[in-house]
Each structure stands twice: as structure tokens, then as C-alpha cells.
Amino acid sequence: MTTTTKLATPVAATPSRRPGAGGLALRQGRLEITQFLRSRESVVFTMGFPIIMILIFASIFHGTIGGGVKFTQYFITGMIATGLMTVSFQNLGIWIPVERDRGVLKRYGGTPMPKWVWFAGKVIMVVVIGIAETALLLAFAVALFDLDLPGTAAKWLTFGWVAILGVTACTLGGIAISSLARTARSGSAVVTPVSLILQFISGVFFVFTDLPTWMQQVAALFPLKWMCQGLRAVFLPESFGAQEPGGSFELGRVALVLGLWCVIGAVLCLTTFRWTTKRDG
Asked: Among 54, 101, 139, 268, which is least packed by CB within 10 angstroms?
């Protein structure tokens, strides 16, 4: 009796499809977003802080701020700006030292993955969470406090470029300041006081022109003040610009200062960022 052996037909190896540069960045961004969403404390604070603050202000301040502008209409600009700063500058400044201390960045630096992909993932996370946070805040303010949204395409365009420049400057600043933290625990101690001081002197919790002149001048050195001013041009009447320190909303200067901080932040990132802790060499 003869038996025949059936030989397996070899399958030609097909080269695995490697994702392109854009695909790598999107995958890293999705990973960063997933990690952020798994941190309940970060989600609650980042998404809830602006809403809680506008609720507090709406409960304390009633009536108008002058020129028929409601207090809620004025303070929503600061809440949007500080929310964007929280998700970019504050979150990155606190979490990057944690990743560095745990050796996560060292492992990333040792992989074949281009280093820019890691940075791109952080940017994608900041943009996605920032958009979600801002949309949630605006929906909340419209539903409960009759917030007047921008009524023209030009104002929405201004909203867009102020937010983009502001988030870019704060993201780069958050990456840069993360190098000041020696350990994971010191990240919050380094970043949180800076964030709070900027919020108090930049017109987030107070009407900016009610602050002492020297405080206004100090705030003018940093991007948060200009983010708030640019957003006031979006949500407040054109006539309200006359009450600004410069006599107008100065959108050209807003763009100039925020753009300058983007350059400063990029330079600081390139010159100070570290993939390992100092004890790792």
C-alpha cells in the first residue's frame, strides 16, 4: 500500500506594511490620548476646572461689567485660555518628568522610532483634549448662562488662530519647563505655582484693567495675558477694546507676542530637553 505525502506549498513572505510618518504620529497621538483618559484625576481636573470656575464666577458676579457686557461673557475668555494652558503647559510640565523618572523617555530614545514622533503624539493629545475641553465649556456656558457665541466668521477665525498660537506656545513651554523638575514628584511643585501666578496676573480671575499697573506689565511678558486679550476680541463687543490698556484689542500685537513665544519655546525645547534623568547621565 502506497502512501503519498502531501507537501505544504510554501507561502511567499510578504513584507509588512510599515506606517508612514503621518501614521506613526497618529498612532502615538492615540496612545497619548488613551493614557490621558486612563488618568481620572487629570481628566476631571483638566475638563472640569474651567467649568467649575465659570460656575463660581456666575454665582458670585451678577449684572454687567460695563457697556452691557455680562460678567460671564467677560470671564469665559479667561476660562478658555486657562483651560488651554492647563492641558498643554501644566499637564506636560507635570507628566513629562514622571515619564522621564520612570525611564519611559529613555526607552523611547533607544528605539528606532524617530524622536519627533513622540513630540507629535504629545501635540495631538493636547489639540484633541483642548478642543473637547473648550467645546464642553462653551456648551455649558451657553446652556446655563446664555453665553453669546461669536456671530461672524471673522471672529471665529480670530478664535482659531489665537487658540492655535496660544496652545503651541504653551505646549512648547510645558515641554521646556519639564526639564527643571529633578524628579517625578517635583514636577507639580515647579509648574503649578507658575500656572497659578500667571492666571492671577493675566486677567483670568479679575478684570485685567482693575489689576495694578506693574502687575499688568509683568503679565504682558507671558503668553496667557495675550491669549485672554485675543479671546476678548472674539467674545466682547468691538467697543470694549477701548477699555484695554492699549486702547484696543491689539490683535496684531497678540499675534506677534504669541508667535515670539512659539519661537522661544522651540529654542528652549531644543536646548534643554532631556530623555534621561541626570542620575542616568
From this structure: 139
